[in-house]
Amino acid sequence: MATLHDMSDKQTVWIRHAEDDIRLQATFTYWKYLTPDDKTTISKQRLFTLNRLIDEPVGETFKRLKVNVAKHFYCQTKGGPRSRKTVEEINTDAANHVTVRLFDNTGLEINSSIPNSNAWVQGGKLEINEHHYYIEINPPAVKELEMPVNMLSGYFVRPKLSLEFADLNDCVFSWYRINGSSSEGILVGEEEVYTPTISDVGCQLKLVVLPKLKHRCGQSVEAVSKAYVTEGPKRDYLSERKQHISGWTSSQGFRVVTYNVLADVYTESEVSRTKLFSHCPASFIDYGYRKLLIAQELLEYKADIICLQELDKKHYDNYYQPVLSRYGYESSILLKKHQKVPPNVVAEDEESDCSGNKDTESENSDEQFVTVKEGSAIFFNKAKFREIGRHNLSIAESIDSDVLFADIMKQARTSNSITEKLLYHSGSSLQVTVLESVDDPTHRLCLCTIHLYFHPMAEAVRLIQTAVSLRHIQRIKGLYESQNHKVSTVFCGDFNSSPDRQTVQLILNRFIDQSDKVFSQDDVYKMFGLELRHTLQFSSASGFPQFTNYVPAFKECIDYIFYETEHICVEFVVPMPSEAQLGGGLPNENFPSDHIPLICDFSWK
């Protein structure tokens, strides 16, 4: 719970009026001294907030203000509490005990008939009895401040924070360790993000935020955690992987990480709890715990490029984007999107995958499409790259409308099952960001990430999604090459396809024949053959590890970092953890996802 601090020594009435809002809020503190002659000892004080219409005469607002002050400070009776007084008596007390005057910034008194929208002037002054207040219009403010439930030593802590009329970079943050009954605490940090130490274990944390916009300050707000800091996991495998990372890459290269972080929306379903991840205790699959491990691990790798799949939009907005931005990363997120399921199409079987949970979806204002609450995100180091273009592709939307894919969709329509999966059940979207090297603008990178359809029998669906993606990548690469730019492509993500399957073979071998068994091996996904080709010369930077996805019922290599070999080469691949280090299955106490991140260093040729 967040609490407003007392006003500063310079007394202020804070006026909030958001654009297009028909009401304004006036907030101020009123107090009484112990005796009229003692101006140093306060006997009572109270924070007031008035919520008034902007077209109301300011004199009417004064009447309400007088009544509120009188009720709390001047309406005590000898016979009992103030509630025994009638409304008329309270109004009389207000008139007798409370005087209110408002002045503009030149010292002229404001006429009481003027509407609120014009009466309150920045730099003006309000007088309530002997108290004088300066007026601040739309001051920097903290709208929401909430401490996290999970706090681990050695892992980043960031509150849920929402600001208004403030700049995050200007705000002042003060973290305190609270041990015992004292609420004051010991100052331990002065950044938006704090990493608890072993000394914080067993203690609560308090955060005080002073909102600011350049030289303007608002009311500071504090929040105290309900939870206590606990000791974070040691994660020996992470220490071993870090031994292979000496620091940031040089200007001649860059490091790429791809990681399916297991969306929160997919761990909440009944299928997930009882089948897919029944081996994992609830405390470790809780996203409040997992996100701390994920963010810390990502920053430990000192990657220039981070591609994430299954990232919840709410966690991107409230945690990953603000945390990683403090460490020099710029980012964007692309949510999955598919066409709305028509009445004559059977909905996805919930038992087949946790993504059947309908809470994962939200309809667009455009009724034809549905947006999934998770997707992919690209983060890049601003010291190494600058973004020069985004060319994202919603496969379910474009395959049915873009002439570039007309021949593919024509053949896909020979199978109702494939058509339904492509259009209505799989929201797979290709995120494409074109980057330019800060050190050498002649080096350009077409960075692509995707998460393909999951169903184990739907290799034909994944193959078509890949073919569409490759054509789009060729188109974007050609666009920049036509402007005489040298472009390299990195295509990474969760392809849900093992190395021997057709999806991977198309990427590496650039060809799938129309007679391939993928088009006929399963009656459900059977379709007329389709010859697929592309011209991109890809290799797998990370090779083919024994597994990148590791749950008790499924252990396989399905994540990859593919790259074009013409202009870049692989310098180093960070080794994967051993099977012994993974335990009985992922996620668990040390591994926050069911996938393992791939890490590769590249250099420019």
From TrEMBL:
Q: Which Gene3D superfamilies match?
A: Endonuclease/exonuclease/phosphatase
Pfam family, any one: Exo_endo_phos
Q: Which cellular components does GO assign to this protein?
A: mitochondrion
Ranges of residues in domain Endonuclease/exonuclease/phosphatase: 257-595
Top-level lineage group = Eukaryota
In this chain the 2',5'-phosphodiesterase 12-like N-terminal domain maps to 139-227
Q: Where is this region: Disordered?
A: 344-367
Q: Which GO terms describe its biological process?
A: nuclear-transcribed mRNA catabolic process, deadenylation-dependent decay
A molecular function (GO) term:
3'-5'-RNA exonuclease activity
Record PANTHER family: 2',5'-PHOSPHODIESTERASE 12, CARBON CATABOLITE REPRESSOR PROTEIN 4
The protein, known as: PDE12
Question: What organism does the record attribute this protein to?
Answer: Bugula neritina (Brown bryozoan)
